[in-house]
Amino acid sequence: MRLSKAEVEHVAWLARLELSDEEKQRLTGHLNEIMVHFEKLQQLDTNEVAPTSHSIPVQNIYREDVVGQCLSADQALSNAPEARDDYFVVPQVVET
């Protein structure tokens, strides 16, 4: 499958890209080279290959959830710019 310059122009229009004629010509060539590589990949027999979602093994890296020593309310609020009744005072972000 070869892409035409008109198809490249259409995709550029969809992506709201302004391309010069030289860029359209160059990208058409590059995309067609990429399409040749995809055609080669489609010829591979992958029936024996298990589907994967990652190229490398991925493991859960979370630590154990263990209860530890907590700060007191006074320690937690000691560097707060503003505090009231054991709470942080923050600017209102939701209008009512």
Mean pLDDT: 92
Question: With helices defined by DSSP (H or I, 4 residues minimum), what is the helix count?
Answer: 3
Q: Note the beta-strand portion.
A: under 5%
What is the end-to-end distance?
57 Å
Query: Largest beta sheet, briefly?
Result: 2 strands, antiparallel
Strand order, largest beta sheet: 1-2
Structural class of the secondary structure composition?
mainly alpha
List the helices and strands and how they pair.
Layout: H1 5-14, H2 21-42, H3 73-77, E1 83-84, E2 87-88
Antiparallel strand pairs: 1-2
What does this structure look like?
By secondary structure, the protein is mainly alpha-helical. Helices cover 39% and strands 4% of the residues. The chain has 3 helices and 2 strands. It has helices at residues 5-14, 21-42, 73-77, and strands spanning 83-84, 87-88. It has a two-stranded antiparallel ribbon. It starts with a helix and ends in an 8-residue tail after the last strand. The model has no long low-confidence stretch (mean pLDDT 92).
